[in-house]
Amino acid sequence: MIYNQWYVILESDELKKQKPLKVTRFNEKLSLWRDKKGDVCCIADKCCHRGASLSCGKIINGKLECPFHGFIYDNSGNVTTIPANGKNSHVPETINVRSYKTFEDYGLIWIWWGDLNKIEEEPFFFKELKDFSYSSFKDNWNVHYSRAIENQLDVVHLPFVHKTTIGRGNKTLVNGPVVIRENELITFYVNNIEDDGKTRPLKPDEIKDYKNYFHLQFHYPNIWQNFISDKIRAFAAFVPVDEENTIVYIRYYQKLINIPLLKQLMNYIGKISSIVILRQDKRVVTTQLPKKSSLKIDEHLIMGDKPIIEYRKHRQELIDSYFQDFNENK
Ligand code: FES
Ligand SMILES: [Fe+2]
């Protein structure tokens, strides 16, 4: 896991107004709810009194009440009331659980995973998508989220995994791809062609007109988009559940059609085709071993895997820089 990052963890409409929600993210059980203003609160899902699951409790005046003995928690994870000691009794500050900073926009909920004194104001998002409408779905994958991400960076698999859908045409020869990383944003340009048995694939630096190619983007730690056209995009968030499980959120975005019923129909069709394509990926990706990828694993990557190589390299840099920072400030 890369620390000190905003991670998408949920879609907004999964967290209702009056009901706390229990989720597992980063191998931790978390309890989420909305306060009086509707803002998202997130604290550890284990009561500091005697260990009950807080998400089984109730929301009272925007705070969370433990279902066992009624301790009341605020959004900072502090206990503000211990009913058995009397409503007005003082609660020591040490009585608390861990809390997480949250951010909500674009119909998504993020949490900051890392040091609060390193917090960045808001997460990166592909802001242009605000002008699009979308449909979405989620799917559980039995893989570490790094494997799910790498699948969406994998330009070599198309004619094999998606033979019947987006990989039609037997375009097995992979030119490049050209990969550009600007800070935490990776853009990769793809040009797969049929193999006539005579042509060798172009190396990335031989491709000068790459800007005319089909392209996709990934932003650390866990979002991705595919520029299908100016007015159609596929978006994904790869949400880490634990070391071997990920929730993949996929959205089909479009701004071709804005007439109410027609728009819904188009978004529905987009969603169904995304599900078909993603299921083709899932069948293979969930068989990969090890379940988690890293820079130094026993794999023989090829030129076409350049986006994956770049992802692994920078992921490792981010992990290393966190630990370097941590050791320097010890
Ligand atoms: S276990 Fe939560 S109040 Fe007792
Ligand atoms: Fe795929």
Q: What does this entry look like structurally?
A:
- This protein has 330 residues and is of the alpha+beta class.
- The protein has 4 helices and 18 strands.
- A 7-stranded antiparallel sheet has the order 12-18-17-16-15-14-13. The chain has a 4-stranded antiparallel sheet with strand order 2-3-4-9, with no helix packed on it.
- The mean pLDDT is 96.
- Residues 151, 157, 161-162, 281 line the site of fe (ii) ion.
Short description:
The protein has helices at residues 145-152, 158-161, 260-285, 306-328; strands spanning 5-11, 21-25, 28-34, 40-44, 58-60, 63-65, 72-73, 79-81, 99-100, 102-105, 108-113, 133-141, 173-182, 185-193, 214-219, 223-229, 232-242, 245-254.
Distance between the termini: 20 Å
Taking Cα atoms only, what radius of gyration do you get, to the nearest Å?
23 Å
Q: What string gives the helices and strands in order?
A: EEEEEEEEEEEEHHEEEEEEHH
Oligomer: single chain
Instruction: Return the average pLDDT rounded to an integer.
Output: 96
Which parts are unreliable, with pLDDT below 50 for 5 consecutive residues or more?
none
Name the hetero compounds present: FE2/S2 (inorganic) cluster, fe (ii) ion
Largest sheet strand order: 12-18-17-16-15-14-13
**Strand segment count:** 18
What structural class do the secondary elements suggest?
alpha+beta
Outline, from the CA principal axes? globular
The percent range for strand residues is: 25-35%
Largest sheet: 7 strands, antiparallel
Number of helices: 4
Report helical residue fraction.
10-25%
